[in-house]
Amino acid sequence: MRHVQTFLIFFNVTAIYCSRLNIGVAVVAMTNADTTNPDFPEYDWTEKEISYILSSFFWGYVCTQFLGGILCKKFGAKINMGVSTFVSALLTVLTPWCVGWGGWQVFCAIRVIQGLVQGVIFPCIYEHLALWSPAEERNRLGGFSMTGVDCGTILAMAISGIIAKGSMGWPGISYVSAGICFAWCLLWLILGSNSPNESKFITESEKQYLELSVAHKNDSQDQKIPVPWKAVLTSLPFYALIVARSAQNWGLSTMQSQIPSYLNGVLDMEIQANGLFSSLPFMGMLVMSFVYLMLEDVLRRKKILTLKGVRRVFNTVSFWIPACGLIGIGFLDGDNKPLAISLMTLSVAINSGNIIGSALNTIDLAPNHAGSLMSVVNTVSNFTPFISPLVVGVIVTDVHERSLWQIVFAIAAAIFFFGNLFYITCGTTDTQPWDAEDFLIPKVSQSAERGYNKSIDDLGVYNKGMDLETNISDLNKTEK
Questions:
Q1: Residues of the chain with pLDDT > 70: what percent?
Q2: What is the pTM of this model?
Q3: Is Transmembrane helix among the key words of this record (predicted)?
Q4: How many CA atoms lie within 13 A of 362 on its CB side?
């Protein structure tokens, strides 16, 4: 069942990313009817208005990340992820009709609401992984789950171009995306489970295995372990993780949202080829995700690298090589189409190592609070894809001008470089002291503890197998 839960997370990430990112190709189709099915409306939106549409999802997305961690602690992942995905699918279905009478302003409003409902999902995903993934399988199961990002991106870019060119036109992009989300909701309703203890299909042997091997107790949701926010917000490794994820989101959002516009404006590709070529980097990303998973397994099993070493090496490779690739892409134009596409594909594919490199570090630091930590990390880091399209809208005043795209790619490359540098310098994979279930319970001072232990030894009631509180209680009884 832990593999079933992993597949369900993969499917969910695929579905929500498809509905989130199809906007890149859809906007090109909606504003350029010559390259798509001409039987559907065409809109004369400015580059600034398009930048608002592309970024509006994240206006809502960043607002509910923290709420997602709280709701997951209270209600569990099943109901939160199910309701959020279902509502998002409904909004996707309504998009073509609403844009017809409300224009780009209504389009932005729908995207904001979609961002609000999808914002609670990723904190739930990490909490779910922490409950279902044994420490020795965490990279494998977590890494596979997150390949849904690549799969959803491929579907959004490759299939969206074909759909827009076909009989359904650009409205069909919304209908297909919504259908995928509805299909996931049905499977999740039947097979999804907050924890092994709640699963109706898990075997007793697997339940016992998970109880013994998962880094924290599977009934931790029932225990309602309080989050030590003061310790969390003064933790340097936690800030290193935030910086790394912010840098990743900036770089990846630049590639995801701007590749269709770059291919259309600079390389002069029509919509169907645009969609297919836009998806090529993410096909490479999907393939490389499995390469990284196998490589990590070999490096850990043969003890060539520790978990900390794997995180640092993989994150460095997945940040710094794409940074160089982005710089190179900025010097290419329509005369170098094959080289531009190859370089773009290689850069994005290699970036897939960030999942093992830093994305799963949340569970390393605090498995008991993975969802809550992810809510903060995602809140902060998702300000970057909210800002990135706006920055592009200001810089790229003419989508056909290669020098303007050079600036966009150079900014993303610099953020990639310095973000990883801070992460490998200050980050760690050690479980933090503030993850302990009793961290917020007042501790007896060391001097008092020595005094109690001496008194207990003198009375002959000290039991090395018991905790301090139990022995103190026995001492009080003996004194009485």
A1: 86
A2: 0.73
A3: yes
A4: 29
